[in-house]
Amino acid sequence: MLCPFCGYHETQVVDSRDTENLEAIRRRRMCVKCGKRFTTYERVEAVTLRVIKKDGTQESFDLEKLYRGIAKSCEKTTMKPEEIKKVVDEVEVELRDYKSVEIPSKKIGLLVMKHLKKINKVAYVRYASVYREFKDLEDFDEEVKKLLKK
């Protein structure tokens, strides 16, 4: 493992523990040369998921893209980055349990909305507006009315 600070090739593990969801091992490492510490995560390399987009094209599932999309809808809300990361992790777990490695983008959008709806209604409406391609204020109004009825 290369040290991210000095590039030296030798590090030692100072501490090791499972992450909360038990899907990775968090390791604190220390560079033998410069003595600085850093964190690495070790996880099982999973099967690559494929996303089938609305137009029929396919692309590899990208956790960072999912995070960015959710984070965008959560801007200026009370949601913290840790909460967004938790949503991303929960969606990924559900996708990995899906019956196929080819997942329609619609399925991903519905899962995200399901989780956001429980946590933050404003983020939910923002995400839904992009996902469902709201055309005008009436679309927003309709979605908000659905939320208020519940």
UniProtKB/TrEMBL annotation:
<dbReference type="GO" id="GO:0045892">
    <property type="term" value="P:negative regulation of DNA-templated transcription"/>
</dbReference>
<protein>
    <recommendedName>
        <fullName>Transcriptional repressor NrdR</fullName>
    </recommendedName>
</protein>
<dbReference type="InterPro" id="IPR003796">
    <property type="entry name" value="RNR_NrdR-like"/>
</dbReference>
<keyword id="KW-0862">Zinc</keyword>
<keyword id="KW-0678">Repressor</keyword>
<comment type="similarity">
    <text>Belongs to the NrdR family.</text>
</comment>
<feature type="domain" description="ATP-cone">
    <location>
        <begin position="49"/>
        <end position="139"/>
    </location>
</feature>
<dbReference type="Pfam" id="PF03477">
    <property type="entry name" value="ATP-cone"/>
</dbReference>
<keyword id="KW-0238">DNA-binding</keyword>
<dbReference type="Pfam" id="PF22811">
    <property type="entry name" value="Zn_ribbon_NrdR"/>
</dbReference>
<dbReference type="GO" id="GO:0008270">
    <property type="term" value="F:zinc ion binding"/>
</dbReference>
<comment type="function">
    <text>Negatively regulates transcription of bacterial ribonucleotide reductase nrd genes and operons by binding to NrdR-boxes.</text>
</comment>
<keyword id="KW-0804">Transcription</keyword>
<dbReference type="GO" id="GO:0005524">
    <property type="term" value="F:ATP binding"/>
</dbReference>
<dbReference type="InterPro" id="IPR005144">
    <property type="entry name" value="ATP-cone_dom"/>
</dbReference>
<keyword id="KW-0805">Transcription regulation</keyword>
<feature type="zinc finger region">
    <location>
        <begin position="3"/>
        <end position="34"/>
    </location>
</feature>
<keyword id="KW-0479">Metal-binding</keyword>
<keyword id="KW-0863">Zinc-finger</keyword>
<keyword id="KW-0547">Nucleotide-binding</keyword>
<dbReference type="GO" id="GO:0003677">
    <property type="term" value="F:DNA binding"/>
</dbReference>
<keyword id="KW-0067">ATP-binding</keyword>
<dbReference type="InterPro" id="IPR055173">
    <property type="entry name" value="NrdR-like_N"/>
</dbReference>
